[in-house]
Amino acid sequence: MKVIIDLIEDVREQIGNHEAYEVTAGLLKEDAKDSKKLIYAGEAPLNVAVLDDETKQLHFKIDGSDKKVTIGALIPPLLILDMESMMYELKMDVNAQYKNMDIVGFGKNDEQKRYILFIKI
User: Fold this and answer.
1) What is the pTM of this model?
2) Which of 2, 21, 64, 119 has a C-alpha 20 to 30 A away from that of 108?
């Protein structure tokens, strides 16, 4: 389980809070031959990020719109949160079938200026 403070620290370390990076979902699937291995299954842009105080989550969504979540829009409001809010879980809705998915890791693609939130499906 990843929380907001994990995201903030990783963004700072990996890409130096570079505002132009788009935030995307990276899909990982279990290897059919070896369940301990994960296979990269693709990427999709995230369209919405919502901080929900009721569920204590930062929730990312793929809704098919043209909107894109960028580091420049995402990180500044997170930096001013109190410590309790920094411990909110990171979750993602991919589609109707895959909702409230745990984010299991982070990555980056410097060439395409993408910051990746990995989920396991």
Assistant:
1) 0.93
2) 64
